[in-house]
Structure formats: structure tokens, C-alpha cells
Amino acid sequence: MLEIVKGKEVVQLYIGDEKCSVIRPVKELKDFQKIELAPGEEKIVSFKVGKDALKFFNETLHDWVVEPGAFKVYIWFFFDRYSFYSKFCV
Hints:
Blueprint (H helix, E strand, L loop, with lengths): L6 E11 L10 E10 L18 E3 L4 E3 L4 E7 L5 E8 L1
Antiparallel strand pairs: 1-2, 1-5, 3-4, 5-6
């Protein structure tokens, strides 16, 4: 007989810079939350994206910078696909 039990999930926040002056990964993990769910339960998970999450080290300037432009946001759960996608501009 199949037993229905609680499960755990890791919800991950990735951000990608659409156009950057240097080569960067398409998306970078910026935050995550591990949650526990009972069978049939739903939870709201929220992330706050601050300026530090958008910074990268510019070797020419020898400093951490945020370049203006469009960024992509991906929320992943389940290990193999993203479940939410959006954009925002700085």
C-alpha cells in the first residue's frame, strides 16, 4: 500500500543579466528556500532581490558593479525545470 507522507522541496531563485559588458553565466543561483509540504498542501515562497544580488566583479574597474539594463528571474522547483520566469529592469 502506498503511504502518503510529507515531502521537502528546494525552491531556487536564479537571476540572469540579459546584456552585460563581460561574459557571465546565463543564470546564477542567488537564493533558495527549503520547504516542507504535507500532501495537498500549498505554500507561498517569496524572495527579496537586493542590489547585491545583481552585482558582479568587474576586473577592469577592480570593483563590484551593477550595470543598468534588463535582468531575467527564474524560480525553479523540481530539479529539472523552471516554474516561473519574469524580467525586470535596473
